[in-house]
Amino acid sequence: MVDEVFNHNNSCCVDDDLLPNIKCIPVEYMEWNGLSSGENDIFAYVDKDSLISENEKAVDDEMEIIKVILTNRGWNLGSQNGYRIDLSQFNVMKILNDLFEESTDAALALYFFRWSEYCMGSKHTVESVCTMIHILVSGNMNHKAMDLLLHLISYNSGEEGWHNIFLKIHETHTKRRVLETVYGMLVNCYVKENMTQVALKLICKMRHLNIFPLIGVCNSLLKALLESEQLNLAWDFLKEMKSQGLGLNASIISLFISGYCSQGNIDTGWKLLMEMKYLGIKPDVVAYTIVIDSLCKMSLLKEATSILFKMTQMGVFLDSVSVSSVVDGYCKVGKSEEAMDVLEVFNLSPNIFVFNSFISKLCTDGNMLKAAKVFQDMCEMGLIPDCFSYTTMMAGYCKVKDISNALKYLGKMLKRGIRPSVATYTLLIDSCCKPGNMEMAEYLFQRMITEGLVPDVVSYNTLMNGYGKKGHLQKAFELLSMMRSAGVSPDLVTYNILIHGLIKRGLVNEAKDILDELTRRGFSPDVVTFTNIIGGALLNGYCRTRCMAEANVLFHKMLDAGLKADVILYNSLIHGFCSLGNIDDACHLVSMMIEHGIMPNNITHHALVLGYEKKCVENPVERAAFKLQQLLLKYGIQAEDDR
């Protein structure tokens, strides 16, 4: 079909049978627009296949309308047998405006815009794109205009880029009202791209034209500023909004309250809530709920409950969200009776969220009989359990190692037509892997994929860990390949699992190769990684002295990377030196761990006992205890004499 429509032999010409009497000028006459070429051009926002696969009659109809309009508008299309259209920037812009002015059909102009770009074989200029954007907005096709604006932003980065777009939009506008809308959309696009600084600069430029964004765009920018913790800029912009005559309302102030609360600054958030009345704004339930939710997350439940009472006193209607937040807070800290009291006092009929709160608490406590009863009560009340409800029940049964009942709830969930989430399958896979039931784990993993769910890195790591613990290293590495093929990048946990599996099989050198790959891929090995490798080197039965030297090198490499060793790693190294009778290096490590605030324990003491035994010292137990006391006193720590 493409060959039928376009001929690309040095010229961009349309097939005579398909588009009668209209031809394009050769490519070499076209004006270069200064934008880089590539696959991610404006056509990325256009379905090329649908454009060129339309039936010929539809194409004929569109182009016939275009031909008639252009003729009526005075375009000289040449002779009967060979119409030619010069697709220069000026002509494209003029044709787009003529088509829309004559037909008031933005879709027709967009058709020509797409066709001409495909015909030219290069992207339109910024001016042409801006012209098309104005037409789309005039024709109520704002969603298409947004696509083109986002494309312009992606290809015009930096200070010069946004400024150029701003100017070209102004140069190509014909109607003030449309210009105001387009500028507002442009600001919104930069907000969507998390470029709030550019959005603010644009608004400053717009002010010189006596244009200011609508309240919806301003709210989006405020929200973005607050989410990025730019509170001062947000307040400055709020003042600017007021100076432009945009009235403040509860939803705007709620954004600031949410911003303060998300930073843990609840006092300021509450103060702002109380001062809303001085701004002539009545606080609504949303503003109160933001503070309540933040208090509940900090387990300040008495304060949250008191706000509920204050709301009723002030005549603010309590909704299910505000009350449910407090109920959930009490459930999470194990105060189910208080949660029930809140429901009763504020006369809230339990909803799915409330039931989930109670079920979650019971499952966390391992009280599955009571959890199952509450789950049943919820169903009998006519409430339909959601994915969270079922997943919580499964997690509870998995916690008490009752995988059979967990799988029963999966069956109930599927029977009701509720789709499990990736998290649902992952927790079941984990519960199957722990006792070594890899066959069931593999089945669940494959079922997840069959149902169209995309396993995440946690899902892959969970199954991989099961393989590693069973010693199925080949399957673990096959899963790694599958993971990469699916576009899921391994994380530090993935590498730690592989390293641990290799170490378990005594493949220390192979584990170190994985460490090298980890570093090459830009990961910073953590304490777990080094503990696995160092511990593996120490447990390896070959060349003890050589292994200790390598372990020591790795240990200092870890310290150089800025990581802090934990008690497990210190004890592994101390035990390694002591197994060789190297008490001096072992004691140096004990001194180092105390200096870094890590206290020796019984395992440290037993390691030193082993070291003194290797040195054939009399009374090694007492000698080890005395040495530990000496090292602790060196740092002003009184040792407990309880050995």
What are its keywords?
643 residues; mainly alpha; three-stranded mixed sheet; two-stranded antiparallel ribbon; TPR-like_helical_dom_sf; PPR_rpt
Give the topology, please:
Elements: H1 2-5, E1 6-7, E2 13-14, E3 22-24, H2 48-52, H3 56-72, E4 78-79, E5 82-85, H4 89-103, H5 106-120, H6 126-138, H7 142-155, H8 158-171, H9 176-192, H10 196-207, H11 215-227, H12 231-243, H13 250-262, H14 266-275, H15 285-297, H16 301-313, H17 320-332, H18 336-345, H19 352-365, H20 368-380, H21 387-399, H22 403-415, H23 422-433, H24 438-450, H25 457-470, H26 473-485, H27 492-504, H28 508-520, H29 527-539, H30 544-560, H31 567-579, H32 583-595, H33 602-614, H34 620-634
Parallel strand pairs: 3-5
Antiparallel strand pairs: 1-2, 4-5
InterPro entries: PPR_rpt (IPR002885), TPR-like_helical_dom_sf (IPR011990)
Pfam family, one: PPR_1
Protein name: Pentatricopeptide repeat-containing protein
3D structure, described in words:
It holds the Pfam family PPR_1. Keywords: Repeat. It comes from Vitis vinifera. This is Pentatricopeptide repeat-containing protein. Belongs to the PPR family. P subfamily. The strands form two sheets. The protein has a three-stranded mixed beta sheet with strand order 3-5-4, with no helix packed on it. It has a two-stranded antiparallel ribbon with strand order 1-2. The radius of gyration is 35 Å and the shape is extended. It is built from 34 helices and five strands. The N and C termini lie far apart (88 Å). The longest helix is centred in the first third of the chain and has 17 residues. It has a domain of 124 residues. Helix 14 runs antiparallel to helix 15 and helix 26 runs antiparallel to helix 27. It has 643 residues and is mainly α.
